[in-house]
Amino acid sequence: MQRWRREEGGARGEGGRHQYEEGGARENTVQGEVFGARRNGAGEKGKRTQESRQMEKMILNIARRSRLLIGALSEVFWLDLRLGVMAERLRDLSQPIDVPLLDATVAAFYGTGSKEEEVVAPLRWVIPEICKSLFLIVVLTQRSAADQILRELQNNPDTWLQVVHILQNSQNLNTKFFALQVLENVIKYRWNALPAEQRDGIKNYISDVIVQLSSNETSFRKERLYVNKLNVILVQVLKHEWPARWQSFIPDLVSAAKSSETICENCMAILKLLSEEVFDFSRGEMTQQKIKELKQSLNSEFQLIHELCLYVLSASQRTELIRATLATLHAFLSWIPLGYIFESPLLEILLKFFPMGSYRNLTLQCLTEVAALQFGDFYDAQYVKMYTIFMAQLQTIIPHGTNFAEAYTNGSSEEQCHIRVLESAPANRGGLLMGLEYLIGISYVDDTEVFKVCLDYWNLLVLELFEAHHNLENPTLSASLMGLQTTLMPEMVDGLGSPLLQRRQLYSVPLSKLRTLMICRMAKPEEVLIVEDENGNIVRETMKDIDVLVQYKVLSSLYQNAMIMRETLIYLSHLDHEDTEQQMLKKLNKQLSGEEWSWNNLNTLCWAIGSISGSMMEEQVFLFSMYQYSLDTSLVRHALAEGLLDIGKDNKAVIASNIMYVVGQYPRFLRAHWKFLKTVVNKLFEFMHETHPGVQDMACDTFLKIVQKCKRKFVTTQALRDLVSVVRDIVMRSWAMHDLSTRWADELVEFLLAAELEDLVMGVGVLRDDDASCGPLAPSAIAAPVHEGEIGRLLPLRGFLGGVGENEPFVSELLSSLSITVADLQPHQVHSFYESVGHMIQAEPLPAKRDEYLRRLMDLPNQKWAEIIGQASRSVDVLKDQDVIRTVLNILQTNTSAASSLGTYFFPQISLVFLDMLTVYRMYSELISNSIAEGGPFASKTSFVKLLRSVKRETLKLIETFIDKAEDQSHIGKQFVPPMMDPVLGDYARNLPDARESEVLSLFATIINKYKIVMMEYVPRIFEAVFQCTLEMITKNFEDYPEHRLKFFSLLRAIGTHCFQALIQLSSQQLKLVMDSIIWAFRHTERNIAETGLNLLLELLKNFQVSEFCNQFYRTYFLTIEQEIFAVLTDTFHKPGFKLHVLVLQHLFCLVDSGALTEPLWDTSTVPYPYSNNTMFVRDYTIKLLGSSFPNMSVAEITHFVTGLFESKNDPPNFKNHIRDFLVQSKEFSAQDNKDLYAEEAAAQREQERQRMLSIPGLIAPNELQDEMLDS
Questions:
Q1: pLDDT tens across 556-597, in order?
Q2: Within 13 Å and on the Cβ side, how many CA atoms surround 1169?
Q3: Which of 361, 379, 399 represents a domain boundary (last residue)?
Q4: Residue 183 and residue 316 in one domain
Q5: CATH no. for residue 282?
Q6: Are residue 682 and residue 741 in the same domain, yes or no?
Q7: What percent of the chain has a predicted confidence (pLDDT) above 90?
Q8: Which residues of 391-422 are buried (b: 16+ CB within 10 A; e: fewer)?
Q9: Of residues 452 and 924, which shows the higher confidence score?
């Protein structure tokens, strides 16, 4: 009643407002007339009257708005009370649940109610901002309360008893879904604990509702979503009941399907769900025994399903039923016995449906599944027949010669859904080649998903052809593939080779076209930093600020496509090196002639050339590298001459990126041709002065990549050979030159000779602004190409080249001009450059020369360092200047970069700056502590303190890098560790938590890992300085100080692994602290921390097992460790640690059953029952532990699991599978992504794939190989 009155009052207020406004309007009109008549007589009086009335009007409006606002706020208050009453009524499950009230709650949760509209509607004309805020408050209040109510109902173990009542009385689909979700959880997790009559009741009710709704066409279409959910529930029941307790399910289902076409359509959906649950989604959802049982049952009863499918496809005219049957068949075809496919009319029926648009895509899916089956040659005749008919039908649908890219663009969404063509046997050559032609055409469609499908097929086809070709060259492999036990004789291999060569010949034409396709569509390698943006501008590649997960998925997909394309092109290159070279040279010619000129075509061509570097033979490498290097400059020269191109900085950057990428992919060629290597490096130095975004970064990256593979060349004084004849003979003799016109062949020779004679390449000026005055881009250089006669004029200089060498190694020449080379580089690029030069110096075998090179390399930073230290000795305040701090930081970073490549040979340099560096470290540490003490925690966030901490961190990083990269020489550790004890360790202990650097922990972890037992005497001091204070920082929660966490446990692992005796000497309280910290580590949800803790635990367990304190340690910690490991093992947040959890448990059970423990693990004073041995005790303890943790499992199930642990403890694979089955039975891991439980197998597959790639030249790029490519 009160609410109605408030609403009525609101309405009256609304009406009053309109009346007032009308009256005000009339009044203003009258006043205007009066004031117009009496303007001269009563102006002041009329003005005061008008102001009074305006004031009165404003006061009335404020009062009215206040009443409405108070009324709306009252509604929010009453809404809270009503939601509380609703919750209490719904929680009372002692009587049938109030279904309308549940409907309202569900509607509130999904935001489908209109109550919030009623509350705020009168306010919309008042204050829009307040109206929006109130609306949001009402909606959030309702949704939050409804969510809480529904969660409580879902977690209530008795709610499922109300499911039938809800389904029968609710008209809200969302409410029905909520009820079915509750029922599904009961079926998944508590089914076997329910009485038999309740299980039968659920099973019968679900079946009856499904039949009832699917018997009628109208209800079936109207309630389709509801029926689909009921089907899911039924399949969940089947996973428990069938076949043991519901043997008649398949016959019953087939019988019901024949009674009605709508029932039959739904039966197909149920069968499809069942097949997917058993064969696609069963891993981690069911025990392996249950999966095996269901698969056997489906196979044994498939005869009935097969007959039903054939009957429907032959007799029905109903589109929906036929589509459902085809979809179900598609789910079956990957696992059913082959006789049901090839020894029945199934294939003929499928091909009958292919021309029909409504069934084409589903039919194509089925045929694709058949094509993917492995069945040897037993059904070849049927397969060839299927393919022949399919190709004939395909040509009527898509005539030969169709432009697939255009047809796809103009096609419907249904036609664009699946475009797949199948491979056939060689017996049907015409159809096979026609099919490949279709697929090549489809591959040009500008759609990522379509191209990816085609690319997957091409990769599989080419890989199969390559492996056959590769195995032909390896008789042992050929024999093993044939199942023979002996190696084939040469004449036997020749016999095998004939059909293999014939097969390669059959595929030669389509594979040649495929090479062209791969070149045209080659993806950008990650090394290339220069890209074209959406506006056509040439820019440095940047990462857009978008959602991280979406970004990761997009980049992963692009990277995967690029890898597959590169791999496919490498296989194609191995199958026919000559054709690969021909296709690329044709593309080069078309670029030079302008026939296919575009920056995109130039880029993809260069990327393709670089991608096959490891698969090319030496002569081809020479031609490609030299030709590609000349391509860009020659291309630019002729484009300028013909007016085709305006060379700007953007285009120069593209040329630079292509040059750098290609030459970086051919280190083998660079090592074999010093003059060209030197030319390339000097060109990179030129690019380092170019300020276009990305060019300098790419130049530094390429320089580092080249130096890592060719470093010895730079420290050797090179003698030139008679290179004129070498260049001319190799280039002109190459058969590939036949594809070039005389003009371009002579042009290439001219360029190569010029490069060898006078380093004219250095004058190209590709990225210079002054290219009008020098190099081949100068106007004088744009002239007719040099011909054979002109080349002859250069030949007398052959003796000059043969007799003159270089006076000093290249590294010496480089160091002389170091300051000029790095003048235009940014600090991070200078650091990369120093790392590169460090690799060169590291290759110098003579210690005296090496030290001299190092001195010259570090001369610039050392001069600045000495200047700063000298000033600081006179006035310490110099070190407080922020510019000086930045300079110090840059000097340290430069040293770190050099140390990372020089390793042990960096010793003279670090010895020079070490003590001064520690002095600066100590001073900056005191400044940081004073700043934080004076300014509080906020001071640590200031730019000054951050800069100081950066210097401290870089100091620690420099020392760690040197020690990590240096050889294992104990004198280095003894020389550097003692001076660091107080400045570094003492500072860490004394500092406030916010001022402690995590790098201290990683530094000493590196020291202990490097020098192992030599560091034993320092472990107590390390332990004392960092252990207690770090634990206090990281054990308050799982979030603070994330870097300290991982590095702390890494330090603990280093001590436990290499200085175990130091742990034994700890007191019992200290050891308990260590064990508690390890448990804290593997409880952590951050994967790296948890894995570090588990690895440390496993190593400690093994070390204590062979120590004299074995009994004492395990008596104290065995049961705690077992309990904690089972806790994280059954916690879904710790699934990535599954492998290590299993290893720890296996160690514990093996230990206790081996008799190594000679004292009881239990406390004899508190355990009344006497156990005969530790095995019996641990068995009983584990059963009780798991029984209390998993009340949903019976004692028999848990006892069976524990018995299995002891029986399989010496068989790691079975032990692991036994635990996986337990996790499924415990229901802790059901309906989850369980791939982490199989991470070990996945890692083994990845390693096997890597070994396969290593065996094929080119699949792993030269710069990705772990072993060093030695240069002679």
A1: 555 577 788 888 998 898 888 888 888 888 887 887 777 877
A2: 7
A3: 399
A4: yes
A5: 1.25.10
A6: yes
A7: 27
A8: beebeeebeeeeebbebbeeeeeebbeebbbb
A9: 924
Q: In this structure, what CATH number is given to the domain that contains residue 1084?
A: 1.25.10.10
- The lowest-confidence range among 30-44, 270-284, 433-447, 1141-1155 is 30-44
Amino acid at 486: T
- 3-class SS at 540? strand
Is the domain of 1104 the same as that of 1223? yes
Residue 1034 lies in a domain: no
Higher pLDDT, 496 or 834: 834
What pairs with residue 865 in β-bridges? none
Mean pLDDT calculated for residue range 840-864: 95
CB 943 within 8 A of CB 889: no
CATH number for the domain spanning 656: value is 1.20.1440.250
Instruction: State pLDDT tens for residues 291-338.
Output: 777 888 888 888 899 999 999 999 988 899 999 999 999 888 888 888
pTM of the predicted structure, to 2 decimals: 0.66
- How distant, in Å, are the alpha carbons of 157, 238, 279, 1103, 1193 from that of 194? 12, 15, 27, 48, 12
**8 A C-beta contact, residue 819 and residue 856:** no
HEC string of 507-525 equals HHHHHHHHHHHHHHCCCCC
1225 and 1178 share a domain? yes
* Residues 136 and 250 occupy one common structural domain: no
Backbone angles phi, psi at 792, to 5 degrees: -60, -30
- Residue 531, H or E segment: strand 530-532
Phi-psi region of 534 (alpha: psi -120 to 50; beta: other; left: phi over 0): alpha
**How many other CB atoms sit within 10 Å of the CB of residue 218?**
8
CA–CA gap between residue 857 and residue 715 (Å, rounded): 14
Is pLDDT above 80 for 536? no
Distance CA(1040)–CA(914), nearest Å, equals 32
Number of domains present in the structure of the chain: 4
Q: What is the mean pLDDT of the segment spanning 852-878? A: 94
Contact 448, 405 (CB under 8 A): no
Q: Give the pLDDT score at 741.
A: 54
Domain holding 273, by residue range, is: 171-399
Q: Is residue 1058 part of a domain?
A: no
Greater confidence (464 vs 1100) lies with: 1100
Burial (CB count within 10 angstroms: exposed 0-12, middle 13-18, buried 19+), residue 129: exposed
What DSSP element (H or E) covers 660?
A: helix 649-664
Which residues, 6 or more positions from 1062, have their beta carbon under 8 angstroms from its beta carbon?
A: 1016, 1019, 1020, 1023, 1055
450 assigned to some structural domain: no
Question: Dihedral sign, CA of 649, 651, 652, 657?
Answer: positive
* Shared domain check, 378 and 230: yes
Specify burial of residue 390 (Cβ count, 10 A radius: 0-12, 13-18, 19+): buried
- How many other C-beta atoms are found inside a 10 Å radius of the C-beta of residue 937? 10
- Looking at residue 790, what is its pLDDT? 37
How far is CA 59 from each of CA 7, 65, 122, rounded to the nearest angstrom?
Answer: 22, 10, 19
b/e 54-75 (16+ beta carbons within 10 angstroms → b): eeeeeeeeeebbeebbebbeeb
Q: Within a domain: residue 284?
A: yes
Q: DSSP of 795-809, one letter per residue?
A: GGGHHHHHH-B-SS-
Token readout for 731 is 């280039």
DSSP result, 749-817: HHHHHHHHHH-GGGG--TT-S-TTSSSTTSGGGSSPPP-HHHHHTTGGGHHHHHH-B-SS-HHHHHHHT
Total number of residues shown for the chain: 1272
Q: Helix crossing, 224-241 with 173-190: angle to 10°?
A: 10
Q: Are 1058 and 1097 in contact (CB under 8 A)?
A: no
Rg (CA), the chain: 40
